[in-house]
Amino acid sequence: MSECRYYTQGMKRVLIKHLLKSESEISEVLIQGWVRTRRDNKAFSFLEINDGSTVSSLQVVADAGIPGYERIGEMSTGAAVSIKGALVTGQGRQKWELRATELELVGSAPESYPLQKKGHSPEFLRSIAHLRPRTNLYGAVFRMRSRLAASIHRFFQERDFAWVSTPIITASDCEGAGEMFRVTTLEVGDTASKDETKDFFGKAAYLTVSGQLEGEAFACALSNIYTFGPTFRAENSNTTRHAAEFWMVEPEMAFCDLQGDMEMAEAFIRFLVADALENSPEEVEFLNKFVDKGLVQRLEHVRDTPFVRCSYTEAVEILQQSGKKFDYPVTWGINLQSEHERYLTEEHFKSPVIVYNYPKEIKPFYMRLNDDGKTVTAMDVLVPGIGEIIGGSQREERMDILVDNIRKAGMNEEAYAWYTDLRRYGSVPHAGFGAGFERLLMFITGVSNIRDVLPFARTPKNCEF
Ligand code: 4AD
Ligand code: MG
Known about the structure:
This protein is an alpha+beta fold. The protein has helices spanning 2-8, 16-19, 122-127, 136-158, 212-222, 258-279, 281-290, 295-304, 312-320, 338-348, 399-408, 417-424, 437-445, and strands spanning 26-40, 44-50, 58-63, 80-89, 96-107, 162-163, 169-170, 182-183, 205-207, 224-232, 245-254, 308-311, 353-359, 375-383, 387-394, 430-436. It is elongated, with a radius of gyration of 27 Å.
């Protein structure tokens, strides 16, 4: 491998991100990356090299005749190269450029390389999801994704939350919506496939829709925990905000009520937004220029302004008095649709808003019943451009009411005996929420389709790569 050869010569590759921030010229440096463009003159060539460490490429000037120049013709768009040279003051727009002293072609890219030009449609780029991270936009999005994951861990770790990796294969349906993928080793069409006791686990198993229930068990031991991992939903919603495989962040806090839950959700989002503005300025600036011209302004607003709180009942009144014609008419008791959520956050409040105390009929069995007997302590955080980004609640800690809910929901009481045990032994008021990681990323990058913030998106009828 060429890289090893350079390493044995005692030279270490430097990422372009660091070179562009250099304070002074560097007499000898090694870069490795992919050619974005190349222009040849008689006596020298210009190459734009990108190594994925930052949005910007580094301009390289290579004089004809330096070692390796004989293969310059093969160093076309998409080719991988290793280049030694001196970092000197740039003659063009950039502060720095590289005066090459030695070139090496590591891997060529024939003309069939699909990213010859800029400006491909997102649809086309989705069809080459294995190559699209090499574009500026997807490079920025996926660096942001990585940064956001680290910030999420930091937010909770700094607050003494323990990370729990709740199981991906589970026998419980947390949301009770029946949107689970079955996990089985039985053959399709096999008569045995109808007999769950013959299956791998001796019973039906699924991919988890949420780590919450298992998270509650750990919160009722370690006090403050969070889960952060993949979740799966077999819901057939072909929208720009739904994926069949997505990641969820789920904190769970013992000795916490709805109020504390809402405070934590707001602090969480504002922390992540402030972190992105502070620590990913190049990506944010790039996304603001090419994806969403209002991005920086919106992020700064979210960072600096407290979220609105509004009960479900108030929200229904606002929607009814809005004079707007919605596809789904608004009456007390309906599940708020995306059009309603977006009206509230984008047009009415013009700010993130937390809607709380929803009708019990439209919410899952585990949410705590309010004294009015009609509503539960649910809360959804709605943000402009997306709608629901977080869903959470205070949990029902009273054994009798919880068991009643389980029965009424037609769930198997025995299968949830472990969960009701948490109420039998040292039950405490506790609360938590689930934040869609991709929705957070969409919000922070301004990217409007969930397919474009997932490395390899899984949506109905689409499981390529
Ligand atoms: O509102 P949801 O369904 O809540 C729960 O699953 C709770 N058990 C969470 C908890 O209290 N611990 O999902 C939580 C969030 C949503 O607000 C949304 O951001 C995201 O998960 N989400 C999805 N993201 C992408 N694709 C999907 N199909 C999603 N479904 C939910
Ligand atoms: Mg929800």
